[in-house]
Amino acid sequence: MTKVVYFDCPTGIAGDMCLGALVDAGFPMDYLTSELKRLGLSSEYQLSADSVSHNGQVATKVEVTVSSTHPPHRHLPDIEALIKNANLPNQVERWSIAVFKQLAIAEGKVHGVSPDQVHFHEVGATDAIVDIVGTCLGLHWLGIETIYCSAFPTGGGTVKASHGELPVPVPAVIKLWESRNVPIYSNGINKELVTPTGAALMVTLATRFGRFPEMTVEKVGLGGGNRRLSLPNILRLWVGESIEQESLETVAVLETQIDDVSPQVLAYCCDLLFNVGALDVFTQGVTMKKSRLGTLVTVICPVAKVPDCEEILFRETSTIGIRRQFQQRNALKREIQEVETGFGKVRVKVAFFRDKVINRQPEYEDCLKLAQKHKIPLLEVQKAVLNQ
Questions:
Q1: For the CA atoms of 171, 186, 242, 130, what is the dihedral angle to 10 degrees?
Q2: pLDDT tens digit sequence for 271-298
Q3: CATH of segment(s) 251-330
Q4: How many CB atoms lie within 10 A of CB 13?
Q5: Rounded Cα distance, 321 and 333, in Å
Q6: Which CATH architecture is the domain 333-386 placed in?
Q7: Is the four-CA dihedral 12, 327, 92, 28 of positive or negative sign?
Q8: How far is CA 294 from the centre of its chain?
Q9: Coiled coil where (predicted)?
Q10: What is the pTM of this model?
Q11: Ranges of H-type helices in the chain
């Protein structure tokens, strides 16, 4: 079974609420504090946790108190360098950087600049770095493999920001929702309920938004917010394991057509896309406007890998535009097994449906090496594997 969490956001989500829910679910404050020291920002903030009561319900409130009233303003490359130099667990590093990239893309669209040129204000401040990296640390410590999230309440009213008075939801949050077609609704509360940090975490890391996944509930963590609202201002984190039948996941489908790049460059680009985590990459010959022959490049990747894959396509090809779609994929449970044949060992990818084996596929590279070694047809090695 897969370890999963569901973020239930009846009054929205913010970075500190995520931290509070994770700590309430068992994530140790000592570990959080010691790991965050790796960022080298300890002089810029203080971290504390306490119990709070909202409408008679007790939750955990994690407070990030910034030491200076004017914390350093940072750009995306500055934040990436901080995270990469912190020697954090690999998954934490990948998640954290992906969240900030998604946030930079949204802010860039709002201000009309590239992601690297975004001058982060509130969201680039010390507390946001602590919230994002800390949340990724908590999810990693709990062993979470798949993340789900509820629909978001829109909130209302206005909020003061570095650019002046802004309507709620603020522009960056709307852009983040737009990037994933996030479901939203009004709960009648006219306050800022979803912050850019909270939205970026879920838009980047969540596999799906909306209803609860089919799961067994092992633990519930409650993260308290700052404001007193008509509803309990609590983020609920449901931790458990997926039920085997739950196999739907959201993937991104990126497409672009190109008519002035050599096949060798496209082959190199495809290799780079696979290296950063694309699930599949394929090309098709197409006829473009004015009857020019071109190539349609399609990339299927996890949602969190969209920024990396788009960066490669923009950098390595001549495309100036990439289309995005988000689709659900029903993937069978798979595992790699090793089979001993008369020619040697071969890895086999085995697929299960409701705990029954329905497909076995020998690894091509293993079969190829044995066929070349023994000077026999490749098909003979593959048959030997499947006959085991």
A1: 40
A2: 999 999 999 999 999 999 889 999 999 9
A3: 3.30.70.1380
A4: 27
A5: 34
A6: Roll (3.10)
A7: positive
A8: 32
A9: none
A10: 0.66
A11: 15-24, 29-36, 76-84, 90-111, 126-141, 171-180, 196-205, 263-275, 306-316, 364-374, 378-386
What the block records as the tokens of 138 is 């908590």
Per-domain residue ranges of the chain: 3-242, 251-330, 333-386
Structure tokens at 253: 């489908």
240 and 215 Cβ atoms separated by less than 8 Å: yes
Residues 6+ apart with CB under 8 A from 191: 155, 156, 157, 168, 227, 229
Q: Which two tokens stand for residue 380?
A: 């003979």
Closest CA to 94 of 300, 278, 308, 253: 308
Say how many residues make up the chain: 388
pLDDT tens digits, one per residue of 107-159: 888 878 777 766 655 445 788 899 999 999 999 999 999 999 999 999 999 98
CA dihedral sign of residues 209, 212, 217, 219: positive
